[in-house]
Amino acid sequence: MSEDYKRPSQWLARSPARPKGWRSGLTIVSLVGLLLASDPFGCRLLPIYHQARFGQRHRQVLHQTNPIRRNAPYGREQYWALDARAGQAVTITAQSYEFDPYLILISPTGQEIAWSDDSGGFFNARISTTLPVSGRYTIVICGLNADQYGTYWLSVEEEDQPTVWDETAASAYYDRGMAWAEREQNRRAMSWLDLAMGRYFRQHRQWKRAEAYYARSLAAAQRAGFTYGQWAVALERGILLRERRRYDRAIDQLERALEMSRGLRAADWAEAVTAIQLGDLYRYIGRAELAATYYRKATDHLRS
């Protein structure tokens, strides 16, 4: 992932538990036990699949009631089946206007062969790879953490489909998303899109434009009762202020984010992310002891 504040998901093991293999058995009870033991997705029950097809854009909803992964990333997850052949080049994209999707591609033999977080522009995920064998692949789509869920679109295309993500493309995506959010009266999505646009302009060092979108994102998150969105705005503002070398204000924002993170479903993840940012800030200003303290806190939360 390209963003500093997402590093905890790099520290954690990304690979799902590998299949443990079948054992012989004669009774129904033993068969059920074997099915559970062979599950490569870290779930207690075998997953329910949707069918993905080449050339189609599928709309689905990741619900709060969907199972949470046992392996990183620890978000709600759904599963798609994709029938494909060896040597086939594919591009898989997951887009959402209201959460940060994560993609994992698992081979017919149960091996994780690719994953993606933000490589599809904004917070979207994109995998581009050549498939090693023929058979039925599993696409796992999940939120980056337990606070991530909502409507998403999954598409699968043959051949490598390059991502163009200049300001024109980003603005067009934002406009489409806002039109959808207004039709759905989804303030959570409005907040998420404004956050993504603010982050885009921060990355391009257009500070005033970034701050304008952060303000809009925060207002929408407050109206929607979207606590995760409010935390994310505080975190993004802290990063922006650090990059502008407004260190005192950056510390205030990040301390606010740290306090808000404790009330989230993904509290340990959010506290770790925020602590890393505080550690980075104190390291930049030459306060090594404080930096080390926050890095230790981040490590403790990641181990929880």
Architecture overview:
With 304 residues, this protein is of the alpha+beta class. It has 2 domains: 4-158, Sandwich (Jelly Rolls); 167-303, Tetratricopeptide repeat domain (Serine Threonine Protein Phosphatase 5, Tetratricopeptide repeat, Alpha Horseshoe). The chain has 9 helices and 9 strands. The chain has helices spanning 8-11, 28-37, 167-184, 187-203, 207-224, 227-243, 247-261, 267-284, 288-303; strands spanning 49-51, 57-62, 77-84, 89-95, 101-106, 112-116, 125-130, 135-143, 150-158. The strands form 2 sheets. A 5-stranded mixed sheet has the order 1-3-8-5-6, with no helix packed on it. A 4-stranded antiparallel sheet has the order 2-9-4-7, with no helix packed on it. Strand 5 (101-106) and strand 6 (112-116) form a beta hairpin. Helix 5 (207-224) packs antiparallel against helix 6 (227-243). The two termini are 22 Å apart.
**Tally of individual domains:** 2
The CATH architecture name of the largest domain reads Sandwich
SSE order, one letter for each helix or strand: HHEEEEEEEEEHHHHHHH
Count of alpha/pi helices? 9
- In the predicted model, the low-confidence regions spanning at least 5 consecutive residues are 7-40
Mean of pLDDT: 86
Note the topology.
Layout: H1 8-11, H2 28-37, E1 49-51, E2 57-62, E3 77-84, E4 89-95, E5 101-106, E6 112-116, E7 125-130, E8 135-143, E9 150-158, H3 167-184, H4 187-203, H5 207-224, H6 227-243, H7 247-261, H8 267-284, H9 288-303
Parallel strand pairs: 1-3
Antiparallel strand pairs: 2-9, 3-8, 4-7, 4-9, 5-6, 5-8
Helix pairs in contact: 3-4, 4-5, 4-6, 5-6, 6-7, 7-8, 8-9
